[in-house]
Amino acid sequence: MKNFGISVVAALLLLTSCEKDSAEGSDNQEKVVNENAATFAEIGSIMIGGEGAAEISAYDETTKKLFTVNNSDKNQIDVVDLTDPTNPKKLTAINLATFSGASNSVATHGGKLAVALESTIDKQANGKVVVFNTIDNSLVKEITVGSLPDMVTFSPDGKWLMSANEGEPNADYSVDPEGSISIIDLTNNYTVTTLGFTGFASQLSSLRAKGFRISKTAKSFSADIEPEYVTISEDSKTAWVTLQENNGVAKVDLTSKTITAIFGLGYKDFNSTANGIDISDKDGSIVFSTWKVKGMFMPDAIASYAVDGMPYFITANEGDAREYGDYADVKRLAKMTFDPTIFPDAATFKAENKMGRLNLISTEGDTDGDGDLDELICFGARSFTIWNGNTGNLVFDSKNDMDKRSNDFGTYDDKRSDDKGSEPESVVVAKMGSKNILFVGLERTDTVVVYDITNPSAPIYLQSIKTGDAPEGLLFIPASKSPTKRSLLVVSSEGDGQVKIFQPNLN
User: Is the dihedral of CA 482, 187, 115, 177 positive or negative?
Assistant: First the structure.
């Protein structure tokens, strides 16, 4: 009993010391708070609205407010008091109707809130990034950017705002604006530079050899590019932008404001045990097997970090079909025609309990142009991947780990096996003490999976977290900026409009 009492006293003294040091300032906060990244647990939640309500959230440390996109039956940003994360409360809302735009993304930095707005008058027209003061929600600036800004983010140094402008076509594909990237200089009165991709059209042949995709219906190379998500390096000099439907990533030099490279991401081969997938929603079971199919990575969200000076970017390999009006590039495998020499067993594998239900990219796989498939190409890689930030080379892929983890966790949705499995949607990298921690949001299994990626070549699984329905936005609040002086993970789920807050235990 005496030894037990001493250990308790020692633990209390240690905790008191940590709390005291924490209160003295935030400069060394991450060094003082020794947290266990494998122990995140829910401490609070708030319902923003119905389906589509809670897509993306951003946190302002100066006011301790959370700003959440609300596109359910409204067109607004909900403002939430996060002073007590165990009891978040809605304060007010920012009405966006007056800007003739609907919000797709929010970001905060230095007392400013940026909102990416697509045009509600003409979706193919140029959109806006609108900036507000976080203290009173007053308007600071409206900036015109490219068509359909889908994501906005600040650089770590607060000098730049960037938007990925997707430029989707209209329903009959008669209007297809160019995809673009906008760079807004906050130090020069919000001057905007919008970059296009025309200059890379001459590289199409070499890009295709690396798995880069331009649709056969494309009006032009640049019109077919659809930027989705942006991440910016810690030194605020480089950005990487996912080009989801094109199966690529663009690298941007922020100093020169130029796109310096496009990386084709290649294919994921599901015909290996480590990559085995559950391919049918009609087989009555969940079994991860090998199949003669390849997946295009087609990443949605992207994050970045550096290890010993080497930059890396990380992708959530969701996959995404193009479906506009009567046009769609997705088709069930059973409805396709196959090269009889390459696929002599087609009659067998087209069964519903085999590969027949799998959704294929209908415009890919006919390598010789004779009208039948020589390869089977599907959407997404059902994984996260770490890539070399300089070369775009693959460093690590999680293979089928997240589908298996979801199944073990009891959240795997067999009804999505024919589509994209657990459907990795979002990624966030955080520094916790000396470790780099990765959070991956899985849209179809309502799960966040946590990994230690301190060694980019050998990530370590830490835990799975149950979220709301269809987690879309992940936000990490470091202990130095958190109202609790502890790290927080905020998960916004568009399926049910819930925002949940998670906190780890101390070691």
Answer: negative
Selection from 62, 33, 32 nearest residue 488 by Cα? 33
Q: In whole angstroms, give the CA distance from residue 476 to residue 490.
A: 6
- pTM tops 0.85, yes or no: yes
Nearest CA-CA partner of 108 in 146, 69, 73: 69
Assigned token pair, 21: 């040091």
- The helix or strand, by DSSP H or E, that contains position 404, with its residue range, turns out to be helix 401-409
- What one-character-per-residue DSSP string does 61-101 give? TTTTEEEEEE-SS--EEEEEE-SSTTS-EEEEEEE-GGGTE
Spatial separation of the C-alpha atoms in residues 149 and 132, rounded to whole Å: 17
125-162: pLDDT as tens digits: 999 999 999 999 999 999 999 999 999 999 999 999 99
User: How is residue 169 annotated by DSSP?
Assistant: -
Look-up: residue for tokens 């780990």? 401
- In order of 14, 111, 183, 246, the CA distances from 243 in angstroms are 48, 30, 17, 5
**Sequence-distant (≥ 6) Cβ neighbours of residue 345 within 8 angstroms:** none
Q: What is the SS3 assignment for 11-26?
A: HHHHHHHHHHHHHCCC
Tokens encoding 285: 């079971």
Q: Strand locations in 101-253, DSSP E?
A: 101-109, 112-119, 126-133, 139-147, 149-154, 160-165, 180-185, 191-195, 227-232, 238-243, 248-253
* CB half-sphere exposure, 23, CA atoms < 13 A: 5
Task: Give the CA radius of gyration of the chain.
Answer: 23
For 17, the token pair is 């010391």
pLDDT per residue as tens digits for the range 187-225: 999 999 999 999 999 999 999 999 999 998 899 999 999
**Tokens coding 399:** 């293979």
**Identity (one letter) of the amino acid at 410?**
G
Cα(297)–Cα(315) distance, rounded to whole angstroms?
Answer: 9
